[in-house]
Amino acid sequence: MRRTYHSVCQSEFVLECVVNISEGSDRRLLNVFDEACGDALLDRHSDRDHNRSVYTLFGTEAVRSLVRLAVERLDLNRHDGAHPRLGVVDVVPFVPLESSSMEDAIAARDDFARWLADDLAVPSFLYGPGRTLPDIRRHAWTSYRPDFGSHHPHPTAGAVCVGAREQLVAYNCWLERGTDIRVARDIASRVRQPGIRSLGLQVGDRVQVSMNLVAPFSIGPHDAVRAVEDVCREVGTRIGHNELVGLVSERVLREIPRHEWTWLDLSEDRTIENRMAKRR
């Protein structure tokens, strides 16, 4: 018998889901998406130039309401934005928290991907232990075929990367105005390491080093910013400002001296634990 996680997640906060939607500029539509999430919504970070919104949710129910609306209302053929994407709902990772395990996250991932194919006819690529999100971005539709659903993209929704992963921190270092995109890409390549996934992106009239800190308890935002600053000094540019995308855990925050929080775009209000406490 297949285990289901819906009733568990309604009564306990065991899984976090961080949904990346390919829409960041239509405020009216984003408000509709917000309402679909109900009280499961912990945070939304939207960026017009990326044309992307990151929804931090708890549990496994609200993600289905949000994704259904996004598939109905968005069209990948009309999408333009700085961030790479496979679909109108680009990434849906399930993250174990508190008493939950990676096994729970994997089961929720597979449940969601099956629902996505059966109910919305949208194919998905799975990532998690043994396969990374960058792997999918490199190999989707070539050496990788969808794990669930059609082997062809949905005509308007594309495909979804559905994952099970540990906590990470999404983080951007915006470089000073006038910095060339080639410099941003060079910096991104030089700070990249097992704990830091990085891209140099042109975002509007500025450039950024966009990072996923995949081992945030050992390499946190302060470590990543120092690495970027070191390379900036070598190449003759500076960081203009830093940007947290979404939330961090309280454990990550407490590892950073308080006097650095403002520069790093961190605060007690930007933790998962704080947002959960506010809704109880």
Structure description:
- The protein is α+β, with helices and mostly antiparallel strands and 280 residues long.
- The protein has two domains: 6-164, Formiminotransferase, N-terminal subdomain (Formiminotransferase-cyclodeaminase, Chain B, domain 1); 169-279, Formiminotransferase, C-terminal subdomain (Alpha-Beta Plaits, 2-Layer Sandwich), CATH 3.30.70.670.
- It contains nine helices and ten strands.
- The protein has helices at 6-11, 27-37, 62-73, 102-120, 133-139, 181-191, 221-235, 250-254, 272-279, and strands at 15-21, 41-47, 52-58, 89-96, 124-127, 160-164, 169-175, 196-203, 206-213, 239-245.
- The strands form two sheets. A six-stranded mixed beta sheet has the order 2-3-1-4-6-5, with helices on both faces. A four-stranded antiparallel beta sheet has the order 8-9-7-10.
- A hairpin with a 2-residue loop joins β8 (196-203) and β9.
- α2 (27-37) packs antiparallel against α3 and α6 (181-191) crosses α7.
- The chain is globular and about 50 Å long.
- The model is unreliable at 1-13 (pLDDT under 50).
Offer a few descriptive terms.
Alpha-Beta Plaits, disordered N terminus, alpha+beta, about 280 residues, about 35% helix, Formiminotransferase-cyclodeaminase, Chain B, domain 1, 4-stranded antiparallel beta sheet
Quickly give the CATH architecture of the largest domain. Answer: 2-Layer Sandwich
Biggest sheet details: 6 strands, mixed
**What are the low-pLDDT stretches, counting only 5+ consecutive residues below 50?**
1-13
Strand portion:
15-25%
CATH class category label of the largest domain:
Alpha Beta
CATH topology of the largest domain: Formiminotransferase-cyclodeaminase, Chain B, domain 1
Q: What is the helix/strand order? A: HEHEEHEHEHEEHEEHEHH
Integer-rounded radius of gyration: 18 Å
> What's the overall average pLDDT, rounded?
92
Helix content: 25-40%
CATH homologous superfamily caption of the largest domain? Formiminotransferase, N-terminal subdomain
